[in-house]
Specification:
The protein has 131 residues and is mostly beta strands. The protein has no helices and eleven strands.
């Protein structure tokens, strides 16, 4: 999946099926990862946080609720994202995406793809790094 270090050239994107939709990993280096996350309407990602991964999402299309527990808060709050909005998630921030309609989300992050601590998951993947 990773392009060879320090080489320019074509990269073959990888489609990763998920129970809520799929991810297209269109860039993966030792320094960053680029993804398009497609979430089917009515589906949701895990309530999760990352120990090292730093990510920013950009809503390309669709309608979603982005639940985030901001520093100093005790509860997750819907961040009211609209198409064209971006939001950064730093390590330790609890968050999840809930799709109202089919959504496409652009994500840029540090390369720690397996750094997922699941707190709650409607697909039975709590506490794991499973796809």
């Amino acid at each position: 999946m990773r392009a060879a270090a320090f080489m320019s050239g074509r990269f073959t994107p990888t489609v990763v099926p998920k129970p809520w939709g799929h991810e297209i990993i269109w860039a993966h280096t030792d320094r960053y990862v680029g993804k398009i996350i497609h979430v089917k309407g009515g589906q949701a990602l895990s309530v999760q946080y990352h120990e090292r991964k730093d990510e920013t999402v950009y809503l390309l299309s669709g309608e979603m609720r982005y639940w985030v527990r901001l520093p100093g808060e005790t509860e997750l709050r819907d961040q009211q994202m609209r198409t064209g909005d971006a939001f950064r998630i730093t390590p330790g921030t609890i968050h999840y995406i809930e799709a109202v309609t089919d959504c496409d989300i652009l994500e840029a992050s540090t390369p720690e793809l397996d750094d997922v601590v699941r707190i709650k998951d409607r697909y039975g993947r709590e506490g794991t790094n499973a796809p």
